[in-house]
Amino acid sequence: MMTGVSPDVPLSKSEYKSQMETLTLRLGELQRECYSRGIPVIVVLSGPSASGKGLLVGKLVMSLDPRGFRLHTQSSSTNDAQLHPFFWDFWRRLPPKGALGIFMDNWYRPLFHRAKRFKSATAQTDWFRRINAFERQLADSDYAFAKFYLHVSKREQKKRLKKLAADPNTSWRVTKRDLIMLKRFDRYSKNADLVLESTHTEVVPWTILPADNWRFASLTMTRTLVETMEKAVSGGTSPRAARPALTKRASKQGALRLADFDLSKSLDRDRYEKDLDRLQGKLRRLQNVAYRKRIPIALAYEGWDAAGKGGNIRRLVSGLDPRGYRVIPIAAPTGEEKSHHYLWRFWKNAPRNGHIFIFDRTWYGRVLVEKIEGFCTPVECERAYTEIVEMEQEWAKSGALIMKFWLHLSKDEQLRRFKLREKTPHKLWKITDEDWRNREKWDDYAQAVDLMLKRTNSKYAPWIVVESNCKLHARTKVLKAVVEQLEARL
Amino acid sequence: MMTGVSPDVPLSKSEYKSQMETLTLRLGELQRECYSRGIPVIVVLSGPSASGKGLLVGKLVMSLDPRGFRLHTQSSSTNDAQLHPFFWDFWRRLPPKGALGIFMDNWYRPLFHRAKRFKSATAQTDWFRRINAFERQLADSDYAFAKFYLHVSKREQKKRLKKLAADPNTSWRVTKRDLIMLKRFDRYSKNADLVLESTHTEVVPWTILPADNWRFASLTMTRTLVETMEKAVSGGTSPRAARPALTKRASKQGALRLADFDLSKSLDRDRYEKDLDRLQGKLRRLQNVAYRKRIPIALAYEGWDAAGKGGNIRRLVSGLDPRGYRVIPIAAPTGEEKSHHYLWRFWKNAPRNGHIFIFDRTWYGRVLVEKIEGFCTPVECERAYTEIVEMEQEWAKSGALIMKFWLHLSKDEQLRRFKLREKTPHKLWKITDEDWRNREKWDDYAQAVDLMLKRTNSKYAPWIVVESNCKLHARTKVLKAVVEQLEARL
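YS: structure for the whole thing
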């Protein structure tokens, strides 16, 4: 890992300049090539404060086309981040295809330079697992990655802080935390070593840079980035793309299969009106409690075409305070969405503390329509089961209550509804050629749904199959399920 | 304005229900029609706290397709807003074409329900002017607008607050501010009347709703929205589109004309190296001061193709702390950008307090390439001069330092550079067919530039024409100008 060990003889200024010039020229070419090939590049830079990260980044960006990168520093994050799942703040700032993002404020934020130990070894290894999963997901989608850690010795650190403190123009930069850190330097170092070791993977390795030799550090950083981008640019048949997905499964939650559900379930209108009123009232009260307890709620709707998602959602929200929920319609990805990882648009809409986010179609499109229409490769689809489970895990980690509904319908009932829509003027807009085409692939979809239920049903993000031949039954079933889950939770 | 005066006889429940049903059906149709025609709809709802805004919005959204609207409430704004120009927070949340945005948290925030009077009558009328300008800009771009104010009497308000305070589940909603407001109710009312009167325009009128008759209020609100959307949908040949732009001019700043600049100005390499070093050092120090004083800085680059914008920006930033600046490259608008007002993407990137935002090409594309290529109509282009000046005024209001550079070049020098680029392998990517096509329209552009300089040069956002036949001269001229402006300001 210590690829950045400092040479004995320091580099001369002219040597540095000449090497840097060559690298700069190459970096410019690579930036343009990554741009035209749509390869996103992520640079991570960590290190203790006053280790010279600012100086190093300053040197690095001088070699970059200033129009092609974005630098993320501490100050650009806001209290918004605290209202969302941890990785939300980074997902939303990921560079689009062809761009370069430098993260000085990054997902190692809670790990390096801790004054306190973790509560338990498990808590710590859990962090490593989560971070490695995040980076693996991006690397698997061909993000180019370079991670740098700026290493500084205790003596050097002391010298730097002293110098900063002495100058009235910079003394404000020395914080109380810095001084505590200096005092407990050995513990900090030991912790940093462990973090580096545990997150140094084959795909996303660390490069350690010596803070006391900035010319060497700067050259190493630039050269490593050049090599990373060269690899990405030439890696058309990257071994990564062929890497099988982890055989990870959501915790067992009893097998769900569409065929097991009784579609004849129904509800008469009288009973429905009464139940609806009662359940909507209950949900409204629960919404207030959830809001005050700051619990984020994500409700995901999937189902057959014409299963009645729209009407179901209407009944779900009609009792709610509109200030506390949002309905997020998911259609085919737009330009900006296409220039990102397929999960980006869902992460961006991760539920906010205290709010109910309702997804009308979801991230499961990846293993349904995208799988069946061939919009993603079989390998990508296979990977998606793991990636989706991991995303839901992260949301649940932040305290989110997640429920997923499959609105189930018989093939005959769908036909009846399609025909009805074609005959009813104000419903005509609801039926398109695509609906008929999808219907022809009913069996493929049914198989994909069963596999999805099997592989992504979990305790913290359960699937609920909703028999929807009778819409009245379907509406109260969803309402009842949400009320029960909320009551159990609050 | 008082279109919402309450009827003497209250509406019966069944009457309300039947009227609402008709309106709901129509609203659904109109939502789909606005969607397919790409008409964005903005609903503003203001009124004192506890006036029942939540209830009313709840009723309204029950008539809407929940997938087609977005509700903006107080809680969705963050401290980010305080780091940006006032309207930034609203521009970034404007609905895209075809969508509907309901703003309970809106730009009337600082105006209604003030306990204190404005410092001066001028301060107040200035607010009205700014708000009317904001709404006019959107209305001119065919946003459909409906503004509602929920009026409540002193007696009713007292009753409501008492009721809220009595219930332990709602007592937390009654704030100290509410009680102060009740005490000074008359002054509040008088102020609200003035605000309503001063922002009630022909294009964007207010509708006042009676808080003590919610059925009537709810019906009026829904009906007004239906009428607004109907007008928008049928308004193919809207009189608005033909309305001439305000004949507003930026404050006189001396006439600038390209022909007056001496392109033979040059600088020798030795002098350049020295000046560059000195100026970059100065700018770096000034950056620190500007950061600590929280001054936002916007530097806008325009110029002829091959005038050297890229290299100029590089020299400008190379001395700076990269954590404090951002370079924002402006290309042809993308999908999401196209679904918004043309100024949306610039407002979204309004400079953040303490940071330097550098625009590589700018909002002036509207009156240059878009004008000449016919991407906007002559009326739209004419309007743009006013709209652009107003945007810069708003940024300046928030304390921003704005400078705009036109990198000027002779036609011969451009030809020389084009040819050089074609002959130099690592510069070949810089020259495209479009560059040659633009060159053919040199005279059109020159005329458009002169008009732009004439109409948008102002004290708070000055244009600086930079003679760029000699790149060395151009680079130091920009640096010097920025240093001088900053020194004068800090």
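YS: worth flagging: The two ends of chain A are 47 Å apart (CA to CA).
IM: good catch. Also Residues 237-245 of chain A have pLDDT under 50 and may be disordered.
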